[in-house]
Write a structure and sequence with these properties.
The chain is built from 13 helices and 10 strands. With 350 residues, it is an alpha/beta fold. It is globular and about 50 Å long.
């Protein structure tokens, strides 16, 4: 008889972890699909891969974007978007799985991370949500990608959600960890329950001058981001080498400025740019997402909202499915690469 440890390893979920697909009202359940509709992803253990092929660079909008690319050049495009404090290595096991299925997989460093650089020293180091979303639109234009499946977590989920909501013609389908993450500045002014506020400790730290100085100090930045990894992924037994491969991306000269502006902007403590006001006004209205979507909730992520996706279900108006990954923390694609890649392939066949 297969035991829980072996079963979890076979699924590529990590020790002591199992995936549960929880279907709610109006949800397209996994059992409703036939085997012919989408391929089954071969299981891979987290940490099977440690790096990407040689990275590429392309001028796109305000940036020279560094990115990894795997799979056939003319395959259907999938763009995988990382969060904070992470980088493209969140997809180091996901990308090969999708490439093997014939997808052209693009994994970019977001602004302020890794080898992505601003083209001009005079450009304001802005990290408001609409600016980051436009970076990805510009990247798609530069790579001549008309439509793509967008998949992300944390900052990446927010960015993918925005593109799916405002530019649905560019988004074939969506995989969004933690559901609908579009920021509403007015709502963010309201206090949360104390336990929830405690989870966001670094957001408030970054609102202070001490927090800004900590992010500019390489040693303090290193230790702070590692603490976040350990806190928000309590079941992920990552080693030092895994963290260090990602931490190298935090040495980008604009990293501190981008991170600090992002969190201060969310709390209305830092201004955005007027050129994005129109987009932010549209986002403040909580636009629906009318493309096929799968939302993923990491059960052990302290940011996961209660209710099995109920709090954001009404924001998704097309073919939709919600899945909860039991025992998985915040960095879902790196902790559960097989389940994440399967969601991408499944949503592409909705």
């Amino acid at each position: 008889m297969i035991n829980r440890r072996s079963f979890s390893k076979a699924l590529g979920l990590g020790t002591g972890v199992a995936a549960a697909v929880l279907a709610g009202p109006g949800t397209r359940a996994a059992s409703a699909r036939t085997r012919d509709e989408s391929a089954t992803v071969p299981a891979v253990s987290p940490g099977t891969h440690t790096g990407f092929p040689q990275l590429k660079q392309v001028k796109a909008g305000l940036l020279n974007v560094g990115y990894a690319e795997l799979g056939p050049a003319h395959g259907p495009a999938v763009i995988c978007l990382h969060g904070w404090p992470y980088d493209i290595h969140s997809y180091v096991d996901v990308a090969p799985l999708l490439a093997e299925e014939g997808y052209r997989v693009i994994v970019p460093y977001l602004r302020g991370h890794g080898t992505t650089r601003f083209l001009s020293d005079r450009t304001f180091r802005n990290a408001q949500q609409s600016a980051i979303a436009l970076d990805i639109i510009a990247l798609m234009d530069a790579l001549k990608i008309e439509r793509a499946v967008l998949a992300g977590f944390d900052w990446g989920s927010r960015t993918a959600d925005i593109i799916a909501a405002l530019w649905p013609e560019r988004c074939k389908a969506l995989v969004s960890v933690s559901g609908y993450l579009v920021t509403n500045l007015e709502a963010n002014l309201k206090p949360l329950a104390p336990k929830a506020e405690h989870t966001w400790w670094y957001q408030y730290y970054f609102s202070t001058e001490r927090g800004r100085l900590a992010m500019e100090d390489r040693t303090l930045r290193h230790d702070l981001t590692r603490l976040v990894w350990e806190t928000v992924s309590p079941t992920w037994d990552f080693d030092d080498a895994t963290f260090e491969r990602t931490a190298a991306a935090f040495d980008n000269p604009d990293y501190a400025a981008i991170v600090i502006h992002n969190y201060r902007w969310r709390l209305s403590l830092a201004d955005g740019e007027r050129r994005y006001d129109g987009l932010e006004k549209r986002l403040a209205a909580r636009p629906v997402i009318a493309v096929p979507a799968i939302t993923l909730d990491p059960e052990r992520d302290p940011f996961t909202a209660p209710g099995n996706g109920a709090s954001y279900r009404d924001r998704f108006t097309c073919a939709y499915e919600h899945r909860t990954l039991v025992g998985i923390g915040h960095n879902l694609p790196q902790e559960a690469p097989t389940a994440f890649a399967q969601a991408v392939i499944d949503v592409d066949h909705f």
